[in-house]
Structure formats: structure tokens, C-alpha cells
Amino acid sequence: MPSTTIFIVALCFILLVLFLYLVPVGIWFQALVSGVHTSLIQLIFMRFRKVPPTVIVKNMITASKAGLKITQNQLESHYMAGGRVNSVVNALISADKANINLDFNTATAIDLAGRDVLKAVQTSVNPKVIDTPPVAAVAKDGIQLIAKARVTVRTNIKQLVGGAGEETILARVGEGIVTSIGSAANHKQVLENPDSISKVVLAKGLDSGSAFEILSIDIADIDVGKNIGAHLQMDQANADKNIAQAKAEERRAMAVAQEQEMKAKAQEARAKVILAEAEIPLAMAEAFRNGNLGIMDYYRMKNIQADTDMRESISKPATAKATQKPLTDK
Q1: pLDDT of residue 324 exceeding 70
Q2: Confidence band, pLDDT 50/70/90 cuts, at residue 327
Q3: For a designed S-S bond to 120, which of 29, 32, 105, 155 qualifies (C-beta 3.0 to 4.6 A apart)?
């Protein structure tokens, strides 16, 4: 009997726990005293649908106390879709207190899109400041400037779904800074009037199609970087010098080749002359044998040759005369 009694008591305890789990009387009573009407049957069905009644009822109570009309089916459907019920309800309450037009469908769409709807509402009420990374740009005079900007943005609730994020805003602001500095005549103008960059960038409407509204762009710091124009000119000068040296080397090589070719031709001509002169005695001997050349003719030719050599020695410069060997008397 004692074992049977213990078994009955344990069974009753298990049934009681199961009953209290399936029938959340405490949550139902809390909703009742808070002015939120729900039935035990609906709470039991939530258990079978794997929806925590505590989350749904507490958010219904919170919304009711804040003056919002949100039904149980709306919260349950959003939870079953994978949404964050607490974040949506708190965002709706914050938007209502701040007089921001935000309905339940828009809030759930933002939440299901993966964005933090509560943080978006808070940013819409309290704008935040985004610091851009250093942006390097070159003015028309070739001087590089490195600028840092602070962008004050406010969430645009209407374009939060499908709108561009912070990365796009930073990229657009950086592009605007580069364009503004690049269009300046010289870097001194930018240093004297850094607000001109802000005016140019704001005038471009960079927040178009984004989830944020740009309120202001402030240039926090501008540093002078390298003289890009001078570096480019030096590089160009070095390139031109290398090209000129290469062309000069090419011309020198061509001149050397032509000189070598001319020397080769001169040597070939001298060789032909020597061969021709070597044939002269043979021709004279042949002429003597055939009787075409006499002794007197030969002496006259020798005298003419001696006169020619004398005239050539007289016409040579003094240096050539000094180096010339003296003629020996026969």
C-alpha cells in the first residue's frame, strides 16, 4: 500500500504540473487584471502551436498600457514568422511617444528584413554621428589632401526596408569629398574654406535611396599629403631621360656600325689599289717586251712621278712635313 500511495501522489503531481503548463492560469489571470482579454483555450492552443504565451501576453499588456491596439493574432503571427516581438512592440511605443508615423505592418516588415527596428526608431529620434575613414584626394595644383568628415544621419523609416546602409553613405560621402577637392584650383582654397566641401557634398543628395537622412557633413580634419604633381613630373622626366638615353645609344651604335662599315670598305678599296699597283710593273714589263714603251718614256714617267711627289709634300701641313722622312740623294 505505501508504494501504491507514493505512485498515486507522484502521478497527481505530474498531472498537476502538466495541467499548469498546458493551462497557464497565472498568465491568464495577469492578463485579466491588466485589462487584456484572452481565454484559457487560446493560451492552450499557443502551447500546441509552439508559441510562448508569456511573450505574447506580456507584450499585449505592454502595448495596451501604452495606448496601442495590437491584437494577439498579430503578435503570434509575427513570432511564428521568426520576428522579434519585444523589439517590435518597444519600437512602436517609442515611435508613438515621439510622434513618428510607424504602423505595425511596417515595423514587422523592418524586423523581418533583419534590421533592428527599435534601434532605427531611436536613431530617428536621436541622430547619430558617423566618422568617415581618411579620404585622400588631389587638387588641381597636384597637392594631396587627406580629409576626415563626421556625418550626422537620422533614420528614414520609410526607406528602411530596401534602403542602403551606413557603408553606402560613407562611400558616397568619400566620393563627394574626392570630387570637391579634385575640382579645387589649388589646395590652399580647400584649407582656407573646408566648409566648401560640406556644401558641395550636401548638394549632391547623397542620401537618395538610403535608409538614412543626412543632416550635416562636418569636415573634422584636413592634412596635407604628398606633392603628387611633382612626383608625376619627376617620373615623367626620368622616363623621358631614359628614352633619350636609349635613342642616343641607338644612334651611337648605328654610327659605330657605319664607321666600321666604312673602314671595311676603305680597307677593301686599299686592297684593290694595292692589287692594281702590283700589276703596274707587270704591265710595264709587257710593254717593254712588245716595244710599246721605250726607255725615254720610262724616264719621263719617273720624272713626272717625282714632280707629283714633290708638289704633294709642299702642299702638306707643317706637322705632316715634320713627320715626313727626308729624301735621300741618289
Answers
A1: no
A2: very low
A3: 155
